[in-house]
Amino acid sequence: MKRKVLLGYCLILISWAYCASSEENLKTEKSITLGVVEFPPLVIKEPDSSRCHGVAIDATVAILTKMNYHVLVECMPPARLFERVKTGKVDVTINVRGTSALDQNATFIDAPFVYLSIVLLHNGQLADDKSISAIRGYDYLGIRQALQQEGFEFFDMPTSSDAIHLFDVGRTSYLVSYKQPYQFYTESLGSRLVEVSISDKLTVPSYFAVSNHSRYKDELVDSLNLVTTHISDSTILESYRSANK
To answer: Cβ(142)–Cβ(96) under 8 Å?
Structure first.
């Protein structure tokens, strides 16, 4: 009888110890939030959902997971992303340097993630009224300001697809866009326009950007710089693709 009682006490103690250990592991687990914006084909928003998928997410999650982080992915419009980085609710994102809403609130990793091209498109069938569609919150590395000084009137949309669609249905004469989303849009959905001129404006690198208000800011910056220092390819994304052919 005494042995049974003693065994019962032991089982209770083991159960308490296991629960306490599990609770402590939950408390110390490093969960971080990766914030992304729709940027096809690198980040593609799923229809009728707030979720996104794409190779940029796959590569980032793979790197952060190897660094022992549990990664939550949030997909949102740029303006909301910048606000969540500012408050530390998003720990890591991917962006170009020179975005005023982001630069003061994030620390950029040294190695480039992927190179992006900015283009200006003109619908030759419309009057040159200098109406232009763009993504809300994007400076396009000074291109927005320069076009505003030339008299362009901006019609800002939440996402790249929205801005491209506005231009494609003839609501604006011009579009400033990153080339990759525009090419993806026209290759996937086609285009209503038959007379479009495209001029290349800039090709720029994008980077991992760590929120200055993230609880893991210092270790994320140090670790990301360390693991991306010796990549064999020109960009982090190219290195990921090479390793996963």
So the answer is: no
Residue from 9, 74, 76, 63 nearest 228 by CA? 63
pLDDT (0 to 100) of residue 117: 97
Classified as helix, coil or strand, 51 is: coil
Q: Taking each helix axis as running N to C, give the angle between helix 179-189 and helix 160-168, from 0 to 180 degrees, rounded to the nearest 10.
A: 60
* Among candidate residues 111, 177, 106, the one with its CA nearest the CA of residue 147: 177
Averaged over successive runs of 10 residues, the pLDDT of the chain (245 residues) comes to: 45 43 51 97 89 96 96 95 97 94 94 97 89 95 96 96 96 97 94 92 96 97 93 87 88
Is this structure's pTM higher than 0.90?
no
188-197, Cβ contacts within 8 angstroms, sequence gap of 24 or more: 188/40, 192/168, 193/123, 193/125, 193/167, 193/168, 194/125, 195/123, 195/124, 195/125, 196/121, 196/122, 196/123, 196/124, 197/121, 197/122, 197/124
CA gap 132, 120 in Å, rounded = 9
Give Cβ neighbours of residue 195 (< 8 Å, ≥ 6 apart): 123, 124, 125
Helices (H) and strands (E) in the chain, counts: 9, 10
- What 3-state class would DSSP assign to 66? helix
The secondary structure of residue 155, as a DSSP letter, is E
Architecture of domain 30-115+205-243: 3-Layer(aba) Sandwich (3.40)
The CATH code belonging to domain 116-203 is 3.40.190.10
Angle at which helices 236-243 and 55-66 pack, to 10 degrees?
Answer: 90
